[in-house]
Each structure stands twice: as structure tokens, then as C-alpha cells.
Amino acid sequence: MKALETGFSRPRPAGKAFAGVAAVVLALGVAGLGTPARAACDDPPKPRVDWRGCDKSGANLKGANLDSADLTSVNFSNADLSNAVLDYAVLQGATLQGANLKGARMSRTLWNDGRTCRRGSVGRCWVGGSGRGNQ
Predict the structure, then answer these.
(1) Quick check: 86 and 102 in contact, CB under 8 A?
(2) Which of 2, 10, 57, 84 could bond 77 through an S-S bridge, CB–CB 3.0 to 4.6 Å?
(3) DSSP sequence for 4-58
(4) CA distance linking residue 55 with residue 77, whole number of Å
(5) Cα–Cα distances in angstroms (integers) from residue 53 to residues 78, 86, 99, in the given order
(6) In the CATH hierarchy, which fold is given to the domain comprising 41-135?
């Protein structure tokens, strides 16, 4: 009896296939394509900046656009954030003691205590329907 021709090539050993996939994954990781980028603490203020855990105490951030920035656990003690745009920013766990927030926009900002500021919050985080801020 004659063997049937299937048209398929012989399967390659699994070890070679795994080595090829591992090489691609390693190359992407080394190139920085496999992990999300994280901004350094000395990056300039800009929308979506990632300053998680940075020390910005006493910083002059007057009028800075920090829209949608990740500011988790940042130390903003005595910083000037007046007229800054903090809409949709994450400030959870941030230290704001002595910070100047006069005129700062905070619509839908995740506040340092985990609550979300109401749309239209300016100068302080207004939460819920009570009309009272928590800052």
C-alpha cells in the first residue's frame, strides 16, 4: 500500500518553535515594547505624565496642564498648582498639605482620598451632591 500524500510538512520539534518565540519576546522586552513606558520624575508637566510617587514639594506648577496625569502618591506639599488643569488626573494618595490649588480645574479628578471630584470643580474638589468639598 502506498502512503497518502497530505501536502503538509513534517512538524518541527517543539524545542525550536519555543526558542523562536522566546527570542521574539526577549527582543521586545529589551526594546521596551513589551512593557508600558513610565515617565521619570524630572519629566516636564504635560497631559498624561506619569509622576507616580515623585516628590514635587514646593514645585512651581502654576498653570500646568496635567490633564489625565497619573499623580498617585505624589508629594505636592507647598507646591503651587494654581490655575493648573488637573481634569481626570489621579491624585490618589497624594500629599497636598500647603499646596495652592486656587483656580485649579479638577473635573472628574480622582482625589487623594479615592473620591471623584464633580465636573466643574475649580479650586477644590467638590464631591457628591452635597455642594461641600473634601479639601
Answers:
(1) no
(2) 57
(3) PP-SPPPPPPHHHHHHHHHHHHHHHHHHT-SS-----TTSPP-TT-B-TT-B-TT
(4) 9
(5) 16, 17, 17
(6) Pectate Lyase C-like (2.160.20)
Residue of 129, 131, 94 whose CA lies nearest to 111: 94
- Cα separation of 73 and 7, whole Å? 61
Residue 60 and residue 17: Cα distance in Å, rounded?
54
- Distances from the Cα of 43 to the Cα of 22, 47, 129, angstroms: 33, 11, 36
pTM: 0.68
Angle formed at CA 114 by CA 113 and CA 119, multiple of 5 degrees:
105
* Grid coordinates given for 47: 497631559
Please state the domain extents for the chain: 41-135
Give per-residue pLDDT as tens, 90-123: 999 999 999 999 999 999 999 999 999 999 999 9
More confident residue, 121 or 39: 121
